[in-house]
Amino acid sequence: MSCLEPQRKGPFGPPAILPDTVTLEARDLPGLRPVACVAEGAEVAIGAAVMQDRSRPEIRVVAPVAGRVERVEAGLGCRAIRVVIRPDGAARPAPVTVEGDTRDLMLAYGLWPDLRTRPFGRVPDPDASPDAILVDALSGAGVLAAQATPFALGHGLRALTALTKGPVILCQHGGPALASAEGRVEIDALAPRHDGMARRLRRLRSVARGVEVWVLDVQTAIALGRLCAEGLFDATRLVEIVTPSGGVAGILRAPLGADLAPALKERGWTAPAPRPLRRNETRIDPRCDMAVPSDAALGPIVPVPALATSLPLGMRTIPLLRALQIGDADTARRLGCLDLVEEDMRAASTICASGADYGLLLRRVLDELEAER
Amino acid sequence: MRGGYLATLRARAARDATALRLAALAPPAAVLFLSAPGAAWPHLLAVVTAALACALVFAEIRGRGPVFEALVPALLMFLFAPPEASPGQIAFALSLALVLGSLIFGGAGFGFLSIGALSLALLAFSFPPLAPVVPVDAVIWAALPGGLLVLLAGLAPWRVVLAGAAGFALAAWPAALDPGYALPLALVLVHLGADPFGAPVTGPGQWLSGLMTGGLVAALAAPGLPGLDLSAGVFAVLLANLFAPLMDAGVIALADWREEARRA
């Protein structure tokens, strides 16, 4: 597991699938106002910019595959909604042509939009510096990728220390460390049981009282490590496929924005409704895709222990859920909602009998609190 | 697999709350009915009709249900109502409790009182000689598996039950402590005191609420009355329910203050 292992030039894990189209969605860029920087019919190379933020053009979304731009959808004020690319061939690592520090490389190769701030879950400002960076290695796909490329991961983690004066903490489950702790790189493997990033954040560096932390997936850190150490840009990610009963069907490698449904059907796995692979998505769970938000009036919250433990330890879950239901932003902030983002509320939405989509309710409250800042 | 079943039960408890609570109350209600069908059927008919009628009227007005939650306080009223009460008196008290304690707030789960306790209290208030009574031993024994079910599912906070027993023992010690109180007290604590919507939701709040309920059951009991005084139990539960939001707010404020002090 040492970072002194020889460099790997070839891909690891399963070969990348070849999707019919790759769809890059603006909804994966919270806090940005993207505009398209390619026209329909244009040829794009891997790593070419296809969208950029209107006010901070250095934040870019790049093409994960080479191909032709099939469709550019824009909304009010030329705001990009999605860009669809028809690939010429399979996604493969491309040589790096840009030089610079970590920040420059992440911005140039479209890794910057993978970062999320806590609180508020936004793409961070390119000039900002967080109090710490948490690297999420809790997903099955992330662990597999980290185990396959410890060299790139070590480089990526060290490169991330250039973005912050605080620690870079790799959050993993128990077992052998996925990378070595050195300098400001720390490993958090204290909690062997299954937990999520919200619990780690709450325990390691709560942002409920003023600090800012950035969170990114371990595969983005690996991609950054490959950029820095191997000079290769790899836009593919491993994705864990879950069966309807909750077991793991297998692992796929796919470029961002690929529709996985045809590949899943080919393998005889349960396929979700056709949709592009979202940014930072490392798990396709048909059970989550089946949940359809209802317009019906919300029912009561039944305060059972399973619901009370669905949020990180130390949180007053039931009072917080009640505050979210009535949109009481001040109480929700006092109860620690700033430590949370939408995906942390999935378990509460599943267990609660009220029928509320707590992710949506949390977003409304976070938007209100962000506007008050 | 036991752990698996229990985990599934606890994960589904919120969605199946009404079904589980009705399943817990059905055996004692059935035993009570079968012990004296002739006397029991008018009471059972009265509580079920009153509960469903109130719930249906409000569901019709609001354009949304569900209505079966109202059967939980209906069965509690059936279990604890005195045999000498007329079906009309029982139906009146239950309807009043459902409307005032639950339906005007939006239905079961939106109020803050145990509707079962409220209906028994309203029966005692409205028709003074009609105090709630502890059912016969066979009914209490039949209620035990259901009590265990709601405790395991998490629909009755165990802290309230445990603290309630401790509070009663402390307040009654040593003169009025009788092993015969154990099962009726457990029945009151599980089905009335540990009401999921009436009890506090924070752990320390549940301990406090349980201690208060148990202590008040002993303190409010009429002297010289044989067995557990259920009127005291009902009023103790209602008083603890009234204080539950305050207890939760106090616990959260204290936790915030400690957190601030730790960070300062």
Automatic annotation (TrEMBL), chain A:
<dbReference type="GO" id="GO:0016491">
    <property type="term" value="F:oxidoreductase activity"/>
</dbReference>
<dbReference type="Pfam" id="PF05896">
    <property type="entry name" value="NQRA_N"/>
</dbReference>
<keyword id="KW-0560">Oxidoreductase</keyword>
<feature type="domain" description="NqrA N-terminal barrel-sandwich hybrid">
    <location>
        <begin position="20"/>
        <end position="86"/>
    </location>
</feature>
<dbReference type="Pfam" id="PF24836">
    <property type="entry name" value="NQRA_2nd"/>
</dbReference>
<feature type="domain" description="NqrA second alpha/beta">
    <location>
        <begin position="103"/>
        <end position="231"/>
    </location>
</feature>
<dbReference type="InterPro" id="IPR056147">
    <property type="entry name" value="NQRA_N"/>
</dbReference>
<protein>
    <submittedName>
        <fullName>Na+-transporting NADH:ubiquinone oxidoreductase subunit A</fullName>
        <ecNumber>1.6.5.-</ecNumber>
    </submittedName>
</protein>
<dbReference type="InterPro" id="IPR008703">
    <property type="entry name" value="NqrA"/>
</dbReference>
<dbReference type="InterPro" id="IPR056148">
    <property type="entry name" value="NQRA_2nd"/>
</dbReference>
TrEMBL record, chain B:
<keyword id="KW-0285">Flavoprotein</keyword>
<feature type="transmembrane region" description="Helical">
    <location>
        <begin position="94"/>
        <end position="127"/>
    </location>
</feature>
<keyword id="KW-0288">FMN</keyword>
<dbReference type="GO" id="GO:0016491">
    <property type="term" value="F:oxidoreductase activity"/>
</dbReference>
<keyword id="KW-1278">Translocase</keyword>
<keyword id="KW-0472">Membrane</keyword>
<feature type="transmembrane region" description="Helical">
    <location>
        <begin position="232"/>
        <end position="255"/>
    </location>
</feature>
<protein>
    <submittedName>
        <fullName>Na+-transporting NADH:ubiquinone oxidoreductase subunit B</fullName>
        <ecNumber>1.6.5.-</ecNumber>
    </submittedName>
</protein>
<keyword id="KW-0813">Transport</keyword>
<keyword id="KW-1133">Transmembrane helix</keyword>
<keyword id="KW-0812">Transmembrane</keyword>
<dbReference type="Pfam" id="PF03116">
    <property type="entry name" value="NQR2_RnfD_RnfE"/>
</dbReference>
<feature type="transmembrane region" description="Helical">
    <location>
        <begin position="139"/>
        <end position="158"/>
    </location>
</feature>
<keyword id="KW-0597">Phosphoprotein</keyword>
<dbReference type="InterPro" id="IPR004338">
    <property type="entry name" value="NqrB/RnfD"/>
</dbReference>
<keyword id="KW-0560">Oxidoreductase</keyword>
<feature type="transmembrane region" description="Helical">
    <location>
        <begin position="40"/>
        <end position="59"/>
    </location>
</feature>
